[in-house]
Amino acid sequence: MASMSASRPATETLASKAPTxxxxxxxxxxxxxxxxxxxxxxxxxxxxxxxAALFLVFLLFTIVRDGASGFxxxxxxxxxxxxxxxxxxxxxxxxxxxxxQLIEQGNFQGLLTTADTGLGVGTxxxxxxxxxxxxxxxxxxxSLLGKTATLWVPTRSNFDLLAxxxxxxxxxxxxxxxxxxxxxxxxQLESRGLLKTGFNWTFLTSADSTTPELAGxxxxxxxSLLTLLVTLVLSFPVGIFAAIYLEEFAPKNRWTDxxxxxxxxxxxxxxxxxxxxxxxxxxxxxxxxxSAPIVGGLTLALMTFPVIVIAGRVAIKAxxxxxxxxxxxxxxxxxxxxxQHVLPLALPGILTGTIIGMARALGETAPLLLIGMRAFVTExxxxxxxxxxxxxxxxxxxxxxxxxxxxxxTSAAIIVLLIFLMLMNSVAIYLRNRFERRW
Amino acid sequence: xxxxxxxxVVAARNAADVVTTKMTARNVNVYYGAKQALKDVxxxxxxxxxxxxxxxxxxxKSTFLRCMNRMNDTVASARVEGEIKLDGEDIYKGGMxxxxxxxxxxxxFQKPNPFPKSIYDNVAYGPRIHGLAATKADMDAIVExxxxxxxxxxxxxxxxxxxGTAMSGGQQQRLCIARAIAVDPxxxxxxxxxxxxxxxxxxxxxxxxxxLRGRYAIVIxxxxxxxxxxxxxxxxxxxxxxxxxxxxxxxxxxNPSEPRTKDYITGRYG
Lengths: 439, 270
Prior knowledge:
Number of helices of chain A: 21
Largest interface: A-B, 22 and 29 residues
Oligomer: heterodimer
Shape of chain B: globular
Strand order of the largest sheet of chain B: 6-7-8-3-9-10
Structural class of chain A: mainly alpha
Strand order of the largest sheet of chain A: 2-1-3
CATH architecture of chain B: 3-Layer(aba) Sandwich
Number of domains of chain A: 2
Structural class of chain B: alpha/beta
Order of helices and strands of chain B: HEEEHEEHEHHHHEHEHEEHH
Number of helices of chain B: 11
């Protein structure tokens, strides 16, 4: 700059320069080039969007195609005689007080395997867990003892899959996955109208099982809910207070810089490391229960906390300083400024960040594997220290299972997980719109 | 600009005869980190007069204004030396309650900054946090009185529940003035209150300043020399962090004693 102005004054250069030719060939070429790059950029962006949308559609399509049948199950109509001697229940005592316990101890499993179920096919059609249906029926109506009744019970997984057309019956025997006897029995039962396929309430209300037709997602879903509850209760207040302190009160010095860098690094740490930390600290050092939602929640809280701090700081930073000045100017104390002005305005951003963090925690599998939440749990967890598993872990477990019936369960579990995620994101959007204010 | 020299735009209102000193500053130096923003500023601000700070951008006039209610405390790198007194009490002394001070020395900012709350809540916020109203009726009275004094009552009385941010720029600034006077301060500091407003809104604010004169000690920072001439009785000219000249507005605009003041007033720079 200095040398230029020294040798030749700017005014002289401008005056001696030929006037710009706005319509010359060089300029026309430049304009054409500009339009071309705009065109390329526009359609490259559109193409990227279309590719992304196609992937999403493909993903959703395959999951729904494979998983939709997981929400349906096949029942078979059986006729059973509730023989008190096979059941080992004293008929008179069952009607008296304490009869319920007596019935619960009855040998319904034996009844189903030994007694004639009126199906008349040479193979075992009913599910291993079908005796539970019989027991429920008798508990509901003890007068059924000694009588004969018909009722619908779940079939074995193979019959369920046959009813849904999941087997390729034209394939060679070895590749078919189902034997001739089952196919024959299925055809016979179907022609007699003894089979029906309906909504699978078992799937939505029960926990995991070794047999596909009895396996349900609710145990894992409740495990996830309990885990997320712990995560939210711990990481939300801690994260917000940390964000407020760092943004509004902390002095700006080397220490706070280091804290900031550490928090940003923490947010980028692979989740399995948090699992190892949870294993070492909560299980080995603090001797907390294995496979429990409380430990899962603690571990995921460690992971979610930096996300909330970062989202919170960004949201707090976005509140215009003029609002702080205005409040300070009428004599509000710093705490009043934060809680009466900054926080309400930052809340939509904080909530959005929190829910995104929670959604990430909901989908997290790796840390939960390490703290034992990959356990096979057939009980629906009722408390924070009960053994439990979580939705993504359940997907992982089922996808690993050899039984054919779990294929559709895996996809169905993914659908449930995606519905949970979509619900959480909808809540995030709702909260953001609800609390958003303009200034 | 030549008009100014002739004194035709200068306010007809002269400085008050009886003058009570409200705030005094002695040898105030302000540093932002290593950079010195204000050098050795000493000034007396009176209760009866409107005092204007004028000067080119970056001359330190806003910095000085923000020292007068310790708003500079929010800037981490700012350091204030010297002595500023409100009614003889050093506002930078150890036990000074800054929150109380800011209630006594209110501030109106350059950009209208109403809270994103209702008009009513904007005005009621200050009295509420300081416990100035015992009942709802008291609060209503404070809100109405403040809006009336800010000349906003007629425009706002039917829409008290609406958001303050939905008003026009000029109305927002008067709302901010109403919010400042609702706390019943002793001094009102105005930091270029009209720089974001159109001429009609500016005229209204200037009228308002004139009406508030005497009730509150008013200090106004402005870029606009005609405005200083119109609304103030005392003017201080700042340049490069020093206070060059301080005196009656009529004197500063017609017969400045410093050549730098004269150059600025006549538009030679700034």
